[in-house]
């Protein structure tokens, strides 16, 4: 069943993650002749094609991303007060814009903090706290992460206090996740981890895709060399 045409031109790597068979699930309105499709990857459900109440109602993800505005009234009718509109910020997918020397400078962590690749042991530790669980991405376990993913952990003594990693993967690239322990924010850890991860991706020939949930995240992306591709509307479940 070929529904890729419904997503043609939608520059969202997480959709590719599903369509390429790496992660996520695909649902359609009609298996015999699909006119609409929903790609679910982790916390995101991407809705494309002719608006479908059934697909909107079946969306289990926390963030609903409609391709076109005609999905908006359908989502609002189906979910009512259980969703609210929200704005996310896309960035351009152009790896040639990065300044490796600048990234190397930004990747230096504050005194007392060291950076290292996320290995199976670190992956296990990331699952022990709410703030860090998303850094494990959508992988089955630590071995799967180390085989298919990539990540950087920031350590203070024997504690992971921040990290940047592959939330999802697609052919030739990753979708970036960055998180910091609440007690260690605003001291440059996200910058250092993010810069180190982007450098690691470039060294491996991977495209590090960044999609910002907030303006703070967008500003961090721009600091690392990303260029804004503009805001876009989504719905958050509440």
Characterization of this structure:
The strands form two sheets. Strands 1-2-3-4-12-5-11 form a seven-stranded mixed β-sheet. Strands 6-7-8-9-10 form a five-stranded mixed β-sheet, with helices on both faces. The protein has 238 residues and is α+β, with helices and mostly antiparallel strands. It contains eight helices and twelve strands. The chain has helices at residues 13-19, 53-57, 72-79, 100-106, 120-126, 142-148, 189-204, 215-224; strands at 25-28, 36-41, 44-49, 63-66, 83-91, 113-117, 151-156, 159-170, 173-180, 207-209, 211-212, 228-237. Helix content is 28%, strand content 32%.
Shape: elongated
Given the structure, what is the number of helices? 8
Q: Multimeric state of these chains?
A: single chain
| Biggest sheet details | 7 strands, mixed
Widest beta sheet: strand line-up: 1-2-3-4-12-5-11
The span between the termini is 33 Å
Which H/E pattern describes the elements?
HEEEHEHEHEHHEEEHEEHE
Question: Number of DSSP strands?
Answer: 12
Task: Indicate the structural class.
Answer: alpha+beta
**Poorly predicted tracts of residues:** none
> Helix fraction?
25-40%
Strand content: 25-35%
Average residue-wise pLDDT: 96
What is the alpha-carbon Rg in Å? Answer: 18 Å
């Amino acid at each position: 069943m070929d529904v890729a045409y419904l997503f043609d031109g939608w520059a969202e790597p997480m959709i590719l993650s599903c369509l390429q068979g790496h992660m996520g699930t695909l649902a359609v309105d009609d298996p015999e002749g699909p006119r609409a499709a929903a790609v679910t990857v982790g916390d995101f459900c991407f809705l494309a094609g002719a608006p479908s109440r059934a697909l909107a109602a079946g969306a289990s993800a926390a963030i609903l991303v409609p391709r076109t505005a005609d999905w908006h009234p359908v989502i609002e009718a189906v979910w009512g007060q259980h969703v609210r509109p929200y704005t996310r910020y896309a960035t351009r997918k152009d790896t040639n814009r990065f300044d490796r020397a600048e990234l190397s400078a930004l990747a230096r962590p504050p005194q007392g903090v060291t950076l290292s690749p996320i290995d199976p042991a670190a992956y296990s530790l990331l699952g022990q706290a709410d703030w860090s669980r998303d850094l494990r991405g959508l992988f089955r376990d630590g071995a799967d992460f180390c085989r298919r993913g990539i990540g950087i952990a920031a350590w203070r003594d024997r504690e992971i206090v921040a990290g940047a990693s592959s939330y999802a993967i697609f052919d030739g690239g990753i979708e970036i996740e960055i998180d910091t322990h609440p007690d260690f924010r605003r001291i440059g850890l996200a910058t250092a981890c993010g810069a180190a991860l982007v450098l690691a991706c470039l060294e491996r020939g991977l495209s590090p895709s960044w999609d910002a949930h907030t303006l703070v995240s967008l500003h961090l992306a721009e600091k690392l060399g990303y260029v804004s591709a503009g805001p876009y509307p989504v719905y958050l479940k509440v």
